[in-house]
Amino acid sequence: MEDIIVSENLRFHYTNEYDEKAAVTEVLKGINISIKKGSFTAVLGHNGSGKSTLAKHFNGILMPSSGKVFVCGIDTSDENRLFELRQHAGMVFQNPDNQIVASIIEEDVAFALENLGVAPKEMRQRVDDALKAVGMYEYRYHSPSQLSGGQKQRVAIAGIIAMRPECIILDEPTAMLDPQGRKEVLKTIRRLNREAGITIVLITHYMDEAAQSDRVVVLDKGQVVFDDVPSEVFSNVEELKRIGLDVPQTTELVYLLRKEGIDLDSHIISEDECADAIEALFRTSNNNDDDKAVQAAS
Amino acid sequence: MLKDITIGQFFPGESLLHRLDPRFKIIITCIFVVMLFIGDSVWGLVIGSVFTFGAIALSKIPNRLFVKSIKPIFPFLIFTAVLNLVFISDGDVLFKWRFIKVTEGGIETSVYMLVRIVLLIAGSSLLTYTTSPIALTDALEQLMSPLKKLKFPVHELSMMMTIALRFIPTLIEETDKIMSAQKARGAEIDSGSLRARVKNLIPILIPLFVSSFRRAEELATAMECRCYNGGDGRTRLRQLKSGGRDFAALAVTCAFMGAIIAVNLML
Amino acid sequence: MSILKTENLTYTYSQGTPFEKTAVKNVNLEIEEGELVGVMGHTGSGKSTLIQHFNGLLKPTSGRILLEGKDIWENKTEIRNVRFKVGLVFQYPEYQLFEETVFKDIAFGPKNMGLDKDEIERRVRETAENLGLPQECLERSPFELSGGQKRRVAIAGVMAMEPKILILDEPTAGLDPHGRDVILGQIKQYHKKTGNTVLIVSHSMEDIAKYADKILVMNKSELFCYDTTVNVFSRSKEIEAMGLDVPQITRVFNALEQRGLNFGKQVYTVEYAKELIMKKLRERGKVTRC
Residues of B with CB below 8 A from A113's CB? Predict the structure, then answer.
């Protein structure tokens, strides 16, 4: 499949506007990643790892200090194509309140289309489609202050998908939500990925969200430290903890048991896999004739 | 608390009033205001009341909301009434105590004044209750659009209004929260001398400013990401369309206006 | 004697208006001194309203709140002292910072208490140290700090009042796993060192399971239960039905129980899960190492 986002040796530093000689803070130190069209990628990293800075490069909010970023074949540093880029790659931010512009839900969803000068009749259709896609159609006449955090975030997503983008980048969309809201938002983006084929880049520090994606990119100090399927990435329990991240409890249990010398597959992530593996431990020990699952170190 | 303020709030609905073109609603409201001020006779006020209450009934908005919108200005109403009562000395003196003299004319004027203000508030609340703030800004933007030729920033102004309206509830909630947080640290917000009170506002205002700036910055980025580029070439989801019923409503309003003028001429 | 007690506590918002809503219904609760309590309940369950009663920010519509056996609303003018005894840290407390320096901001509460200069100085420095804020950062502007540091300054501002009861509303909201562990560790440390009562409101069952001795669960404006962590998680199915999460590990062990593999104990932390599995394996003679 073709790549929708490609970053080539992307470097980024903030410069002090008042004093050019002052120390520059290098946030991204040569990022090379490519994201496949239609995939669901999670970008993990602790606060300050550069993950949000990276996300902001994917739709031209920030420009690389050096290196290149291509999104849907558009060079993000080409200012003439900025609007085109932003239609292809929409962005959802952390604080649901600070990205809703209008006091009526449907008018907010229409905001981008109004800016792009879409004809009213088509706009109506696209706004309704977008609201239905995130399950907020019944709320179209509500005001944002009447909605929960999760609902507001779904409205923000609708505002992006109304542009019919190929790709949505979500910068910690669930960080300010309660568990209920987190579930709603994740379910929505997963459905958009599966049913509408929209490429998803999810920036997060919640391990359980990353565990369910196709691929996990882990950033630390502005560099990619892991880039693989979740089960491979999470098998590096010690390394992840060292860089201030966590692993799902299932993976951690397996890790602790393995440390005790129990032979378990280190790639276990889901609850079912974990329960299966533990059950298998005891089933073999009940049969008592086959010890291969349990090998105690002495 | 702060959340109870209802002026300027919109109550979604499908009534005739909700469906009227907001541009016409603004014009009608303007006529209505003029109507109230030229109709300073009993009949004038009766006609004004019929118009207001008729409109309220048509809006299908619960009456208690109008009562609620008048509540905050109640002290002001009393003040105006008392002022009129005391300072107008027309007609027979009904009551006298030291230099205070209550006359028939005074009572009449203060009652007229009261009725007028109440009608004015109720009528103009009706405009904001039945019109979404955005529709209202759109309408104002369009009504003012001739000013664009004079380089007046009509679109920018209406965008500012839209955002302000959007963030008022958010900021009110935030103020409540910051106040509670500072109270929990022993801040005294509503006691002490005037100077102390002003000083006590600092722990509330500074966090509020800081967070407003942060919000503004984030909102600006989010707007850019949704291709916002000023007013040029923008289309609108909701097209303001005027139809027969808008002209009919305007005609009815003009008829009421005519009635008031007629009453004035006859008396 | 319990340090905090509520008797038939009920709170109704906007009473007498069409927006009337009972947020807390008839809550009877007794919290013993020195406990570390986890408070859970989904958004709108009434938990935030409940905790704002504990320090007198809200006044009950009916019922009483007893702090050290005394009704906090008995004498209205004393309510400010209640706030010094029951410290409340709001959600995202860093948004309440306002002073020029970190020192002054932490000192705001103690200064309002009317303490003398030396005592304020001692408290600010001590609290900052306990929360891992370096002394040199005390003279900096709180707005220059990182997100995690700001959060700690805000928490320090309440801790420095040395309240008998410290209540924190989602102290880890929005933090990454490392920041979360650091702050929860410091709160636990504070609890151990001072022996004061601490209440932590959290959506993360995994955190509550790891740190709290007792758990208070609110559901639909009512107190669902207030009990030890083990007992509360033994009702994990009811808790899940409420729409709350239980720790992932608890769900795994519930699933195992359904498959007929019973460990006989309620599991809610990973460490404990490991111990149980190892013990059972040893019993079966499958593991020889001790």
Answer: 235, 237
Tell me which residues of chain A have a C-beta less than 8 Å from any C-beta of chain C: 46-48, 94, 148-149, 175-176, 178-181, 205, 207-208, 244-246, 248-250, 252-253, 256-257, 260-262, 271-272, 274-275, 278-279, 281-282, 285-286, 291, 294, 296-298
So what's the pLDDT on residue C57? 93
CB atoms within 10 A of CB C20: 10
* Alpha-carbon span B77 to B113, nearest angstrom: 9
SS3 A248: coil
Contacts for B199 with CB less than 8 Å, ≥ 6 apart? none
Q: Mean pLDDT over residues B223-246, rounded?
A: 86
Determine phi and psi for B48, rounding to 5 degrees: -60, -40
Q: Say if the Cβ atoms of C57 and B177 lie within 8 Å.
A: no
Choose the closest CB to B181 out of C14, C93, C113.
C93
- C7-46 pLDDT, tens per residue? 999 999 877 777 788 999 999 999 999 999 999 998 889 9
* Interchain CB distance below 8 Å, C83 and B64: no
Q: Is any Cβ of chain B less than 8 angstroms from the Cβ of C11?
A: no
**Secondary structure letter of residue B4 according to DSSP:** G
Best probe of the C interface among A273, A282, A286, by most C CBs < 10 A, is A282
ipTM of this complex: 0.89
d(CA A107, CA A114): 9
Two tokens, residue B195: 């100077």
Rg (chain B; Cα; Å): 23
Q: How deeply is B158 buried, as exposed, middle or buried, from its count of CB atoms within 10 A (0-12, 13-18, 19+)?
A: buried
The tokens for B146 are 């001739």
Interface of A with B (CB under 8 A): 59, 61, 83, 86-87, 90-91, 93, 95, 97-104, 106-107, 110-120, 123-124, 127, 141-145, 156, 159-160, 163
Question: What are chain A's domains?
Answer: 3-247 (3.40.50.300), 248-298 (no CATH)
User: Do the strands A3-14 and A25-36 form a parallel or antiparallel pair, or are they unpaired?
Assistant: antiparallel
Residue B1: both structure tokens together: 């608390």
Q: Please tell me the distance from the alpha carbon of residue A125 to that of residue C90, in angstroms, as a whole number.
A: 43
Task: Look up residue A118 and give its two tokens.
Answer: 């879409």
- Provide the residue count of chain B: 267
pLDDT of residue A21: 60
Determine phi and psi for C2, rounding to 5 degrees: -70, 145
Alpha helices, DSSP H, located in C25-162: 47-54, 79-85, 102-112, 117-130, 147-159
For A43-60, what is each residue's pLDDT tens digit? Answer: 999 888 999 999 999 999
Residues A242-266, mean pLDDT to the nearest whole number? 91
- Kindly list the partner chains of chain A, i.e. chains with 3 or more CB atom pairs below 8 Å: B, C
**Cβ-Cβ contacts under 8 Å, A248 against chain C:** 248
- Number of H helices and E strands in chain C, helices first, is 11, 10
pLDDT, one tens digit per residue, over B111-134 is 888 888 889 888 888 888 888 777
> Residues B233, B237, B242, B248: is their CA dihedral positive or negative?
negative
Average pLDDT, chain C: 91
CB-CB under 8 Å, A176 with C42: no
So what's the pLDDT on residue B4? 47
Q: Which chains are adjacent to chain B, needing at least 3 Cβ pairs under 8 Å? A: A, C
Q: Which amino acid is residue B116, in one-letter code?
A: R
Sign for the CA dihedral angle at C96, C98, C104, C109 comes to: negative
| Domains of chain C, start order | 33-59+74-243 (3.40.50.300), 247-290 (no CATH)
Residue C226 DSSP symbol = E
Burial letters C35-63, b for 16+ CB under 10 A, else e: bbbbbbbbbbbbbbbbbbbbbbbbebeeb
